[in-house]
Specification:
alpha+beta, hypothetical protein PF0899 fold, 2 domains, 6-stranded mixed β-sheet, 4-stranded mixed β-sheet, 31% strand, flat
Length: 294
């Protein structure tokens, strides 16, 4: 008879992973648009409109004229990510709550990071490295002039100015940003976004700036590094990027009789799509500039 992992452990594990995945992973997912629907062929569907529709004055007896807004349907096939782990049979009944929490946390964060990476990769592919939508702040400290340059570039790209614009800042740039009294006032403390507490956000100049902890020495850091001591981050409106997901998380347990352990295959299914890459702004910052208090 095949071995079975205790049901209480599997259920608790699955529930805990799902909870952490939704709360601690996917930091960028609340900043982008969800898909309108998922097709039977496992494709995420998004609708894109030109945004140039304009109402006309009605004239008595005149035939109505379509606005010709120009709607486009964008479809993208879903991709499956997996995080694989093992639990020794000997340890199942001996695991404390903290150990189970640790395993759940590792799996959920791994899948959440994969989602963030996908969103960043999509924006990185569409954001320019020169011109009006490129702000270079890598020669020194990140200043308010650079922040205003990002704002100006976004507004020039005619993104909706409705409080749904986001810009994650790497660690050094974020801490420098907080040094400015114009930003660090309680008047500019951001809302409690779904992925981060208000202490790590600033709503300033119409943009939701937030801490996106980064490690320039980590090859797996999601923010691209064009050269030593530099990182690229981005600013976008929520409707400019889409994320479609079919399955937040499922975990598959299987017994390995050779190793006498349980294997856990955690999977998430989704896809990121660039909807308006013509509005992405790239911000290049330094990772080793000295922080000055202003």
């Amino acid at each position: 008879m095949a071995a079975e992992v205790p049901q209480w452990f599997q259920t608790q594990y699955n529930n805990r992973v799902i909870e952490l995945y939704q709360r601690k992973g996917n930091r960028l997912r609340p900043t982008v648009m969800p898909a309108m629907r998922i097709t039977d062929s496992e494709k995420a569907v998004f609708m894109k409109a030109s945004g140039k529709g304009k109402a006309r004055k009605k004239v008595r007896g005149q035939r109505a004229t379509p606005m010709n807004i120009g709607r486009t349907k964008i479809e993208a096939p879903l991709v499956t990510w997996e995080a694989f782990d093992t639990v020794e049979e000997y340890d199942v009944d001996r695991m404390g709550v903290n150990e189970r929490e640790f395993i759940a946390n590792e799996g959920s964060n791994a899948l959440g990071r994969a989602t963030d990476d996908e969103i960043i990769d999509i924006i990185d592919a569409g954001a320019p490295t020169s011109g009006a939508r490129f702000v270079d702040a890598s020669s020194g400290a990140f200043t308010l002039v650079h922040a205003m340059g990002v704002i100006d570039a976004l507004q020039s790209a005619r993104v909706p100015w409705d409080g749904q614009v986001f810009c994650p800042l790497p660690t050094r740039a974020w801490n420098q940003f907080l040094s400015y009294k114009q930003v660090n006032s309680s008047d500019h403390v951001g809302q409690d976004l779904p992925f981060v507490r208000a202490t790590d956000t600033r709503f300033w100049g119409g943009v939701n700036w937030f801490l996106y902890q980064s490690d320039p020495d980590d090859a797996d850091d999601p923010l691209p590094s064009p050269s030593s001591n530099k990182l690229d981050t981005f600013a976008w409106h929520r409707t400019a990027v889409g994320w479609g997901n079919h399955t937040d998380l499922r975990s598959i347990w299987d017994w390995d009789n050779y190793e006498s352990w349980w294997t856990i295959n955690m999977q998430a299914k989704g896809v990121a799509v660039g909807l308006r890459p013509e509005s992405y702004v790239r911000l290049r910052v330094s990772t080793n500039s000295a922080i000055t208090v202003n």
